Amino acid sequence: MSRIYVQSEATAIRRDFPIYLVNSSDGATPVTSQGGSAPQLWVCGSTAWTNCNTNAVEIGTGFYSVRLTAGELGTLGPFAVRYNTAAALEFNMDGVVVAQNIYAPTVAVGCLTATAINSAFANKIADHTLRRTYANARQSSDGDAVAFRSLLGALGKLVNRWAIAGTTLTVYQEDDATSTAPGGTQTLTPSSAAPPISSLDTD
Questions:
Q1: Which 3 state secondary structure label does DSSP give 48?
Q2: Beta strands in 21-137 (DSSP E)
Q3: What is the model's pTM?
């Protein structure tokens, strides 16, 4: 399994590359006291091994570590580290350098972070909502099933054709001909004592 590193990682301890050495004779016994020299590094696109900038440090019981530099992790893609001594079999392990910060909280694509809804972003949401056509909202598969008793149904009454026949008020869809949801009908209750409405005027 490849070890994953962030490109040009700034945090030193996250650049440590673990190494495990075993005896060259039996291929199993951990070998100690083999640190102090530089492992070799191959990076994506290179045609040769080069010595690492730092030496291997012994951790214990066959384990060692080399702290790669930010520059050594500067190339995206696969890389490999190898290390061998007279007493140990050659250690060879690959890694990969990625652009995304693997230590940052994961956010699913399309989701908002806690700080994402600033004024400009909120305005964009509002503008898209206000300018969205009735037809696009009606035809969308998102949200609940279309219904007259909905915000879309209410908007249709404001912007689409409606007609009165007897005591029935019919609200149509954007084609001004179809009355099924989110179009619909309402029953009117007339009153001869009520004053007639002659106009509507916003103050």
A1: coil
A2: 40-43, 50-51, 57-60, 63-67, 77-85, 88-98
A3: 0.54
DSSP states along 126-156:
HHHHHH--HHHHHH--SSSPP-SSSHHHHHH
Q: Is 90 helix (H, G, I), strand (E, B) or coil?
A: strand
Closest to 152 (Cα-Cα) out of 169, 168, 139, 162? 139
123 CB-contact burial (10 Å; exposed 0-12 / middle 13-18 / buried 19+): exposed
Region for residue 202 given its phi and psi (left: phi exceeds 0; alpha: psi -120 to 50; beta: otherwise) = beta
At residue 58, the 3 state secondary structure works out as: strand
Backbone torsions φ then ψ of 162, nearest 5 degrees: -135, 155
Domains and CATH numbers, the chain: 3-98 (2.60.40), 144-189 (no CATH)
* Class of residue 36 by CB neighbours under 10 A (exposed 0-12, middle 13-18, buried 19+): exposed
Query: For the segment 103-144, what is each residue's pLDDT rounded down to a tens digit?
Result: 776 656 666 666 667 888 888 888 999 899 999 999 999 999
For the stretch 150-160, pLDDT in tens is 999 999 999 99
- Listed in sequence order, the residues at least 6 apart from 98 whose beta carbon sits closer than 8 Å to its beta carbon are 4, 5, 6, 7, 76
